[in-house]
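cron nightly-structures :: item 1 of 1
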Amino acid sequence: MSYLSGIDSIDGLGQLNPYLTAEIRSKQSLLGSILSEAKQLSGLGDTEGKVLKFQDVVAKYNKGISEAEIKAWVWYKRKLFVPMKGWEQYYIKSTGKALEDELFNLVRVGALFYMAGELLPFPIYTYGNMYDREVQLEKDKEDIIKSWGVEVYEQHRKAIAQAK
């Protein structure tokens, strides 16, 4: 649905209310200078030579996120068939037992979290209804302690508490 459907020209928009007309007239010189500056712009402007290297982008926009957390995120997204082009240095290339060991290590360091038989990165694990997460954590408690120990179970509990 378009709110402008049936309007063929600017005349079809109708009259501005008197208050808006007075406001525009009072700011006429400011609006004029903004419009004259805008005429000189073209799109985003000159981007020649202003390309950041991938590592610089990662450093700039992922401050406070560890390499393990990035690896966990990239692994999870690739598991969902998101290609994650450009992130190749964070791919987990292991298979079989080596892959399992690497994923279990990411759980130990708090980059992946176990929930109902699935491994999830921190942002996914801590998104949603945290009371449901607590209930599921109690169901998963035995499996978590058996696979990773009490410390990892406590990590899960703290992550949920922090997200509340």
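cron nightly-structures :: done
The longest helix spans residues 130-148.
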